[in-house]
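Homework help board

Subject: predicted structure for assignment chain

Our instructor gave us this sequence and asked us to write out the predicted structure in token form, then describe one feature. I got the tokens but I'm not sure how to describe them. Can anyone check?
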Amino acid sequence: MALLEGKVAIVTGSARGIGRATAELFCEQGATVLINDLDADVAEQTASEIPGETLVFGGDLTKPGVCEQLVEKVIGQCGRIDILVNNAGYTIDAPIHKMSDDAFQRMLDIHSVVPFRMCRAVAPHMREPAKAERERGEEVFRKIVNVSSISGTMGNAGQANYSSGKSAVVGLTKTLAKEWGQFKINVNAVAFGFIETRLTAAKEESNVMEIDGERVQLGIPEQLRGMAPMMIPLGRPGTPREAAGGIFLLCSPWSNYITGQVLTISGGQFGGMTS
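My token output:
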């Protein structure tokens, strides 16, 4: 039987990249998955291309009330939530002496405030069923995975804002694991290294996204991309599918006794330098 048969999962930022690969893997393993993106049309297209049961929610999760609306849609259509993956995010890079307040705050909003709001929004739909199960003497595990980065665990030049947001989500993860362990909710994080996505593609004019009418440049300089084989013991960046595998592990029954942890998925990059 598929490992996620009958489960209902939310994966934020799941129309592209790691989020999409995660949604595809979850569907392959029997889950019903909520596909989310800023652009509802892109989310709809992705959902139509993924074999399996999907729902779609388009919207900017940093706006007040939107996280709650997403959760309400899932409950209205599925009646339950078993898995939450907080994956949505992007980068606005600059050295700190040239970084604006807005660029710093936006990274905190998407990488730490949104996961906080999503966890708060799913709270009654994970905690209340768990209370009833506990009274019956049952153990039913639910899963939350927050996406961090080695920029958040190690720091990274030019990413004071992104690193701060990704570090904050680690603290959220460890705290929530302590608060919700009694409800058999496993709360873990993944810290990605160099994974081939829009965020690590070449910094070219075409590699942009639009937020509130503003074009945001994505990607990294080609010189840094070329250094990847020297920095990564496995000799190459990871694929979105490989990144999704780590998330899947922490959402599978094999992770039922794992909580409050940060799983580094980096091909060995900075191996031995973090605990």
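Reply (TA_rk): Your tokens look well-formed. For the description, you could write something like this. DSSP finds nine helices and nine strands in the chain. That's the kind of observation they're looking for.
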